[in-house]
Amino acid sequence: MNDQFHEMRRFVEQAMDGPGSHGFDHTLRVISLCELIGREENANMDILIPAAIFHDVARPLEKKTGIPHEEKGAEIAGKFLNQISYGKERISQVVHAIKAHRFSTALVPETLEAQILSDADKLDAMGAVGIARAFISAGERGGDISDGLEHMHGKLLRLSSLMYTRSGKKMAARRHELLSSFVQALEEEIKTDNNQT
Question: Alpha-carbon distance 180 to 54, whole Å?
Fold first, then answer.
């Protein structure tokens, strides 16, 4: 990782809240997934890695203000990258990738780098890590196991069909299988526990 990337990482880490379902550890995993998929898909890492670093920088602000984090995050990234003279064309592509990364946004990722970021963000919501994050998220909202399970049915089990890249689809298939098996096992255990009470 070059010096500019390290500078970006330091800035984002300081801007983020503490641990949680969208803590800085999530950002680090998304960066790693972007590096992996980006190499396989021949992406422009000078666009992809900054987009991954900044993609959730505005999560804490969204909690406080209600402004969608992908919009505010793109604005924050644009300002920061402009200050370090990162280049107008690269900045506009980083901004697009951040704006288009979110599962629930209507904006379609139009570049390879934006598609990879979207895939990487979704991949971190699947598999073993996705399961752990679903229950952390449920706890953050004051929910319980049933809330985590509802989130898996409402969103996480749909993600594998929404991948853009060949590499992302391959990784999603494995994580989806684990997630599906877990959901089935959990529902069976809950059903058994309820029948015994």
Answer: 30
For 59-91, the three-class secondary structure string (H helix, E strand, C coil) is HHHHHHHCCCHHHHHHHHHHHHHHHCCCCHHHH
Distance separating alpha carbons of residues 108 and 179, to the nearest angstrom: 26
Cα–Cα distance, 165 to 111 (Å, whole number): 11
Residue 35's CB is within 10 A of a number of other CB atoms, namely 18
Residue 173 to residue 18: CA distance in whole angstroms = 31
What does the pLDDT average to over 72-92?
97
Token pair, residue 10, equals 């330091």
Please report where in the chains the tokens 């598999």 appear, as a residue.
127
Torsion sign, CA atoms 81, 28, 164, 61:
negative
Asked whether 12 and 28 are in contact (CB, 8 A), the reply is: no
- Domains in the chain, please, with CATH? 1-105 (1.10.3210.10), 125-197 (1.20.58.1910)
Q: Which residue has the tokens 């895939």?
A: 119
pLDDT band at 196 (very low <50, low <70, confident <90, very high): low
